[in-house]
Design goal:
With 258 residues, the chain is of the alpha/beta class. 39% of the residues lie in helices and 15% in strands. The protein has nine helices and eight strands. It has an eight-stranded parallel barrel with strand order 1-2-3-4-5-6-7-8, surrounded by five helices. α1 packs parallel to α2 and α7 runs parallel beside α8. The radius of gyration is 17 Å and the shape is globular. The N and C termini lie close together (8 Å).
């Protein structure tokens, strides 16, 4: 059966961040993941997670100035120092939270920057980050994000993400496969997951269209969950979606699997 974790930057938004791990635990989540936890000191957040009795599956590295539209730094030429500083923060939080995975966002390529230059910066930064991650004892993920939700984001397709992982080496770097983003742009979810399962470190889910609970729409999640079991996937399945109402009220789909 898949191991579901709650993305606490998407779920339980009716309460402060420090109360969300306990809310997730009460609803049956075994784990949590964080997109932007950095406003809360790492040890304070870690105490809330430990008290709730849940595991931290993944934490995102800081993505630059989010309020100004930045969505990652790894593929931005000239921002190498900022990217390295983001790793300092990410690894500190991963240590405190016991998170085995750190998601590194590529970023939106600035106007006037050639894609070849962005790709060269991306590869160099990922190699550097992978070496640091190996010393930290954690692994990194990269995630293709569809261009309808995030125009201009450097990485949008599964095949390119898997090619980059293959180029750098899959020991420390893997793919974060968000079925929502993949379906929005590409489709063929089962085949893509099956073909690349060995390089998929983390999965995320949401309904299509709407990015709501994964219980309606065009993705057959029961089939995909069974496929994960058949293929021996042992990673987490992150619930990164917009609840239609209160988070707890929309979890009937997960209770059926528990």
């Amino acid at each position: 059966m898949p191991r579901f974790c709650a993305n606490l930057d998407w779920l339980y938004l009716d309460r402060p961040l420090l109360e969300r791990p306990a809310a997730a635990a009460r609803d049956g989540f075994a784990g949590v993941e964080f997109l932007r936890p950095y406003a809360v000191p790492a040890e304070v957040l870690a105490t809330a997670v430990r008290t709730a009795g849940v595991a931290t599956a993944l934490v995102n590295a800081p993505a630059g100035d989010w309020e100004k539209g930045e969505r990652g730094l790894a593929a931005l030429p000239g921002r190498e120092a900022d990217f390295d500083a983001s790793l300092d923060s990410a690894f500190a939080y991963a240590r405190a939270l016991g998170a085995p995975l750190v998601h590194v966002m590529a970023g939106i390529v600035p106007a006037g920057v050639a894609r070849d230059a962005a790709r060269a910066a991306y590869l160099a930064n990922l190699r550097h980050a992978a070496a640091r991650a190996a010393r930290e004892g954690v692994r990194l993920t990269i995630e293709p994000i569809n261009p309808f939700d995030m125009p201009g984001y450097f990485l949008s397709r599964q095949d390119e993400a898997h090619a980059i992982v293959g180029e750098i080496g899959p020991a420390t770097l893997g793919v974060q496969m968000d079925f929502y983003h993949c379906q929005m742009l590409e489709g063929g979810l089962a085949r893509k997951f099956e073909d690349g399962a060995a390089r998929v470190f983390h999965v995320q889910i949401a309904g299509v269209p709407g990015r709501n609970e994964p219980d309606t729409g065009e993705i057959a999640y029961p089939y995909l969950f069974d496929l994960m079991d058949r293929l021996g996937y042992r990673g987490w399945v992150g619930c990164e979606y917009k609840p239609r109402g209160a988070t707890s009220d929309g979890l009937g789909w997960m209770k059926a699997w528990r």
